[in-house]
Specification:
The complex is a heterodimer of chains A (about 725) and B (about 290).
Chain A: H1 10-17, H2 21-25, H3 33-62, E1 93-102, E2 107-117, E3 126-130, H4 142-145, E4 161-169, E5 172-173, E6 179-180, E7 209-213, E8 224-234, E9 243-245, E10 248-251, E11 257-258, E12 260-261, E13 267-268, E14 283-292, E15 296-299, E16 302-309, E17 312-322, E18 327-330, E19 334-340, E20 343-349, H5 354-375, E21 382-386, E22 398-400, E23 403-405, H6 418-428, H7 448-463, E24 469-471, E25 474-476, H8 504-525, H9 529-539, H10 547-558, H11 560-571, E26 576-587, E27 593-596, E28 604-607, E29 619-629, E30 636-642, E31 647-652, E32 668-672, E33 679-684, E34 700-702, H12 711-728
Parallel strand pairs in A: 1-14, 20-21, 21-23
Antiparallel strand pairs in A: 1-2, 2-8, 3-7, 3-11, 4-5, 4-8, 6-7, 9-10, 10-18, 12-13, 14-17, 15-18, 16-17, 19-20, 22-23, 24-25, 26-29, 27-28, 29-32, 30-31, 30-33, 33-34
Chain B: H1 17-46, H2 54-57, H3 61-71, H4 73-93, H5 95-106, H6 112-152, H7 161-196, H8 200-208, H9 211-239, H10 245-279, H11 284-291
Helix pairs in contact in B: 1-4, 1-5, 1-10, 5-6, 5-7, 5-10, 6-7, 7-8, 7-9, 7-10, 9-10
Classes of the chains: A alpha+beta (about 725), B mainly alpha (about 290).
Chain lengths: ~725, ~290
């Protein structure tokens, strides 16, 4: 019998390696029981360390936490206080519509009454209607053929259209006399030259803008006319916010809609455009929707009636003082109801998106508080938030009166705030687009831009500096999404029509990004700027303000200096870069050379380098601060750091001065700061009050030996690359 | 070449702190090399700030960090690529300290010189095993994880998203399990090579026939892997509220050292199991055949 090999000699073991079966059979290397027990104990400790300590403490400490719902922000009103908001709009266009959805064929059959009040000073002999769904009719429409890359709306599925069957006034059908208004070649984005022939045969190239003569009659100023209408919609596969995806339907821009009537009796008419579509009069909407009984509906306004009969669900929605109506219907929606103050919140999402709903609810609940405090209380009783299902992303991130669509993943809070950001943005549109109804095609920054600024404020309230992404050391400002506006593809003006932008990317960076960072710069620089936007939003509630009116309010509330900076930054091409060019700091020397006392050469003295003491002379210090790009004159703070650790702040401006050689805006300034201590470092805009600055990486300079280096990067890189080295290593 | 071996019950990572420290130092040096271009670039971009790169991470650094990411995206992308290539090279070079660590754990001679010599001598066989493990690992990941996951994806369209994720992740988790098994299997094979001077093929064939031993090694290595990950989390938790870079660095390096220790502990167990394996009467004849 071989020995029990609890402690066998290595040589014995090696011998067993080539030993035959019979010989080795007796050599059993037995694991002592105590060893196994110790092994088990060790494993248990390791599991404990791994799961409890690592995951429990480690991950929890760096994982971001969902904030609780904060109170409304404290807003400082202007000296004269905020103006009262109007309770109602001037109701110019009222719609009473009935719509029956066939979700199998993706068809809506509609009919109803459109009432137009001629609020202009001129009699009307015709009306203009938008037939937006015709933008999806074929690939030759202005919308489809426009060369606008770099923005949403690129999905091209099944086409869609709207056919008007009847449009009658007092029993007379006006529709046979209608004509589509051609816009061929009107916009730089249109590849066709002006007057180019229709695309195919005699078919019009675009049928989204239609003129309907009123026949022998005219509509006098102050009078109203009611038009009976019947129409047939074929919805496109979801694209540019509207259409279907399987049984999901989002129905926007679906009914013949009056173009906005201007003061002079003309209509703000235009073809459906890739980058802008909204310009309409306020009015009263009364819409009855008829969908299969298994479908859940979300719509603009308040549901005032509902019934189920004959396998159909019939719901009636009403809302006053809005300028559009959209609805959604799907047989898989999960509905959650909540309240924030007087507002009933209806959340619709696909099954399994409960965590996203939580995030949307937090966003709209705080958004209603914050936007209400800043720009006037939300006046409607309902708000519906729709989260489109996967595959229908094009329906996400869109605004309609009291109905917004969100988007993003179903996950709970994980450090990035895509869901919150899009929800807050679309909610903000209830003010900037919904109530302050600027002309989106002519002035897209009037709604998207101001709203991006408003969104930024709410996201910073909710998540602080790291509102874009926060995980451990990664803590990115929400401004990062808007910084593209500071370095656009093309240095186009921010305030210009949609059709003037080079492409979708440039439009996105200037309209969303640049407006937000310019206005945020003004907010951080001028204490009353946000109050100015608050006054603007209240004063022009239920109105259609212009750029000029915005600048006038800024001047009135925040001052002429602020308004001038706003005008320069928003209406001129170009961007702004402020920077430190160089610094000078040298010990002052006693005077050397010839000096004539009293100007008398006979009393000339020659002073050499060592003739007088340099004790107490101090340092000659100077910093050169530069400006590149647009001549925007803002007070720019500069921090000066001295050898003894003291710091001093100065304000630099680049506006024209009496001593400017060309009387124009300056491109450089020199700060002379002689003193007892050497100047060792200069930081321009140390508190980041100028996010519109093209880059902050050139905003600092140090004397030799005073640079901070990269110790944090060294440590972080050593730690994390060490982890990688461990993973790839032995 | 067979160096004088330790008795099996003398094999312990705790008894070889010098070897563990050497591997940690080796990895720290590698991390230093990998980090250098990053530090150089960041130093050029924000080093002239009087607060240095603290300005990227602290105070108002979030916007500055955004600037750096936007304005230097192409450089960052190039750095990422070069770091990945360097890591791939390290994956090969790391077989030297791996062989050295196994030798240090197994041999009587505790000198680093011996470990380095043995590591060099074992390099070719270790490389053979590494290549084999990469091929089998990739094949296993594809066969058990990726392909089934892709096949399942269209069938999950009507499930709740969380369920769909779990379903599509399930094959990947299974593949993870298979990879853990494969990792233990090759650790055992490495132990056979280092302690018993087996050839690559002989070691591989032997461990294929020893699922029980591999399973026991998995039971040892998995908790240690978990603990290793836990230490990472702990390191993050301890340092996240700190701004003192030296203290943070120290904590991180203590964690790195402990993780090497845990790995050495797994390898030590593999070495002792290799002794059991070669003396197992059921496996010996097979090994004998392979050996001949």
């Amino acid at each position: 019998m071989p020995e029990c090999p609890c402690r066998p000699a290595t040589e014995t073991l090696l011998a067993t390696w080539t030993r035959d079966a019979d010989a080795s059979n007796g050599v059993r290397f037995c694991m002592a029981k105590r060893t196994r027990a110790r092994e088990l104990l060790e494993s248990a400790v390791f599991v404990l360390v791994g799961v409890v300590v690592g995951v429990g403490l480690g991950a929890r400490s760096v994982w971001p936490k969902t904030p609780s719902l904060p109170e409304a922000p404290v807003v400082t009103p202007p000296e004269k206080g905020f103006p009262e908001v109007p309770r109602t709009s001037e109701r110019v266009a009222d719609y009473t519509l009935f719509a029956k959805l066939d979700p199998i064929n993706h068809v809506v059959e509609g009919h109803g009454t459109i009432t137009l009040k001629n609020r202009s000073s001129a009699p009307l002999s015709s009306i203009r209607l938008h037939l937006y769904l015709n933008a999806f009719k074929n690939d030759r429409t202005v919308f489809r053929r426009a060369r606008v890359s770099g923005f949403r709306g690129g999905v091209e599925g099944a086409p869609g259209l709207v056919d008007v069957k009847k449009l009658s006034w007092d029993g007379v059908d006006l529709w046979p006399k209608h004509s589509f208004v051609e816009h061929t070649g009107e916009y730089p984005q249109d590849p066709l030259s002006p007057g180019a022939p229709p695309a195919v045969g005699t078919a019009p190239s675009d049928e989204t803008d239609v003129m309907v003569p009123l026949g022998e009659r005219t509509l006098a100023p102050g009078e109203s006319a009611s038009f009976e209408i019947e129409f047939h919609d074929e919805l496109p596969e979801i694209s540019e916010r509207t259409g279907y995806h399987d049984s999901f339907h989002f129905v926007g821009q679906w009914f013949p809609k009056l173009a906005r009537l201007e003061d002079d009796g003309t209509f703000a008419a235009f073809p459906f455009h890739h980058l802008g579509e909204f310009a309409a009069d306020f009015g009263r909407y009364d819409v009855t929707l008829d969908v299969p009984a298994t479908f859940t509906v979300g719509a603009t306004g308040a549901r005032v009636e509902q019934k189920v009969e004959g396998g159909r669900r019939i719901e009636r929605y009403q809302l006053d003082d809005v300028h559009d109506f959209a609805f959604t219907a799907w047989d898989r929606y999960v509905l959650r109801e909540a309240r924030e103050g007087e507002v009933a919140i209806h959340l619709l999402s696909p099954p399994g998106y409960e965590a996203a709903m939580d995030r949307e609810l937090l966003s709209v609940a705080y958004g209603l508080r914050a936007f209400g405090a800043r720009y006037g209380a939300y006046p409607y009783a309902d708000l519906t938030v729709v989260h489109p299902p996967e595959g229908a992303d094009e329906a996400g991130g869109m605004e309609y009166p009291t109905l917004i669509t969100s988007g993003g993943p179903w996950f709970p809070e994980h450090g990035t705030h895509e869901v919150e950001g899009v929800t807050v943005h679309e909610l903000g549109h209830q003010w900037f687009y919904g109530m302050v109804a600027t002309h989106e095609v002519e002035w897209p920054a009037g709604d998207e831009g101001l709203n991006s600024y408003a969104e930024l404020g709410v996201m910073q309230d909710l998540y602080g500096e790291g509102s874009a992404a926060r995980f451990g050391d990664v803590d990115l400002s929400y401004l990062i999404f808007q910084l593209r506006g500071a370095e656009p593809d093309f240095e186009e003006p921010v305030f210009q029509p949609t059709w003037a932008f080079a492409n979708g990317s440039s439009y996105g960076s200037r309209v969303y990004g640049a407006t937000a960072i310019i206005l945020e710069t003004l907010r951080r620089t001028y204490p009353r700027f946000d109050a100015a936007i608050g006054v603007y939003a209240r004063r022009f509630r239920f109105e259609h303000p212009t750029q000029q009116e915005l600048f006038e309010v800024i001047a009135e509330v925040a001052g002429d200096d602020c308004a001038a900076a706003a005008r320069a930054a928003l209406t001129q091409p170009g961007t702004l870069d402020v920077y430190v060019d160089s610094i000078l700091s040298e010990k002052k020397r006693p005077p050397t050379g010839y000096f004539d006392d009293g100007g008398d050469p006979s009393k000339r003295k020659k002073l050499g380098a060592g003739d007088e003491s340099s004790e107490g002379l101090g340092y000659a210090n100077a910093a050169w601060i530069g400006r590149k790009g647009a001549p925007i004159d803002l007070p720019i703070e500069v921090e000066l750091r001295f050898g003894d650790g003291t710091r001093r702040r100065e304000i630099v401006r680049f506006g024209p001065t009496a001593t400017s050689p060309n009387k124009g805006a300056a491109t450089w300034r020199r700060l002379d700061v002689d003193g007892p201590q050497p100047l060792v470092a200069v930081i321009v805009d140390p508190d980041l009050r100028v996010p519109m600055d093209r880059t902050r990486l050139d905003n600092f300079a140090t004397r030799e030996g005073h640079s901070g280096g990269a110790p944090v990067t060294r440590e972080r890189a050593l730690a994390w690359l060490g982890v990688l080295a461990r993973s790839f290593g032995p | 070449m067979i160096a004088p071996k330790l008795d099996v019950d003398a094999i312990s990572a705790r008894r070889r702190p010098k070897a563990i420290a050497a591997v940690w130092a080796f990895e720290l040096a590698v991390a230093w090399v990998l980090a250098s271009p990053w530090v150089e670039i960041v130093g050029r971009v924000v080093g002239r700030h009087p607060d240095g790169d603290r300005a990227l991470f602290w105070e108002h650094g979030r916007l500055l960090l955004g600037d750096a990411l936007i304005h230097h995206a192409s450089i960052i992308s190039a750095l990422v690529r070069s770091t990945l290539w360097l890591l791939a090279a390290w994956a090969i070079v790391s077989l030297l300290p791996l062989g050295g660590l196994l030798a240090a754990l197994s041999d009587r001679d505790t000198s680093l010189r011996n470990a380095a010599a043995r590591g060099t001598a074992l390099f070719a066989r270790m490389a053979g095993l590494q290549g084999l493990s990469l091929v089998l690992g990739a094949f296993g990941l594809l066969l058990i994880g990726v392909v089934p996951s892709l096949l399942l994806e269209p069938r999950t369209a009507n499930l709740l998203p969380r369920t769909a994720l779990v379903v599509s992740l399930f094959p990947l988790v299974m593949a993870g399990g298979a990879l853990a098994y494969l990792g233990a299997l090759f650790d055992l094979a490495r132990a056979l090579v280092a302690r018993h001077d087996a050839t690559t093929l002989r070691a591989f064939v032997a461990v294929l026939r020893a699922p029980r031993h591999v399973g026991r090694l998995v039971a040892v290595s998995l908790p240690r892997t978990l603990a290793s990950l836990g230490l990472l989390g702990l390191g993050a938790a301890l340092t996240s509220p700190l701004h003192a870079i030296l203290v943070i660095g120290l904590v991180h390096q203590v964690v790195a050292f402990a993780r090497v220790g845990l790995r050495a502990s797994t390898l030590a167990r593999a070495l002792s199991l290799s002794d059991e394996l070669v003396s197992d009467p059921e496996l010996s004849p097979v090994e004998a055949q392979v050996a001949t």
